[in-house]
Amino acid sequence: MVKHLNIIFLVAALMLMSSCMSNAHRAHMASQSVDPAMRTSVLTMKLRQQGVQVIRVGEIITIVMPSDPLFKGNSANLDHGAFHRLNLVADFLRSYSKVFVEVAGYTDYLENPYLASRQAASVAKYLWSKGIDSRMLYAVGYDSGVSGSAENRRIEIHFQY
Questions:
Q1: Which end of the chain, C or N, has fewer beta carbons within 10 A?
Q2: Could you report the per-residue pLDDT of 87-105, keeping only the tens digit for each?
Q3: d(CA 140, CA 158)
C-alpha cells in the first residue's frame, strides 16, 4: 500500500470565512483571482475528510476512492452517498485546466469481469455531467488480481498537470 505523509494545511481561517459567506458571495470570490494552490489544498482536505485519498507524486495526482460506498451493491449504479464525494472530485478536477483524466475501476477476479469498466464509466459519466470535458475523460477497468479484499475494489482517478 502506498504510504504518504500527512500534510498540514493552514486553511482554518479560509474555511471559517467561507462558512460565514453567502453562496452568492462565495461564487463571486471564486470567480476572482483565487490562488489555485490554496483552492486545491482546501479541496484536498475536504476529500480526505470524506475518506478519499489524494496522492501527489511530482506532477501526477491520483485520487483513490473505495468502490463500496460509491456503488449500490455489486453494480455500476452510483449510490446516493457517492454524489457528494464525486462533486468534490469534479471541483478538484476543474481546478486544473485541460488535463487528460483516466478513471480506472478495479475489481477482484471473483466479480463480473466487466464490472470494473462499467463502474469507471459511471464515474466518468457523472464527472462529465458536472462539467468535466468528456474529451478529456478516459474510463478503463482493471482486474486487481487478488480476491477478497475491499482494497482491491476501488476507483482511481489519475491525471498529470
A1: N
A2: 999 999 998 878 899 999 9
A3: 11
Give the residue among 102, 143, 94 at the shortest CA–CA distance from 121: 102
Count Cα neighbours of 104 within 13 Å in the Cβ-side half-sphere. 14
**Is 156 in a helix, a strand, or coil?**
strand
Ordered structural domains, the chain, with CATH:
50-160 (3.30.1330.60)
- Rounded to whole angstroms, how far apart are CA atoms 67 and 150? 8
The neighbour count for residue 127, using CB atoms within 10 Å, is 24
Q: CA 141, 142, 147 angle in degrees (round to 5)? A: 130
Are 128 and 107 in contact by the 8 Å Cβ rule? The answer is: no
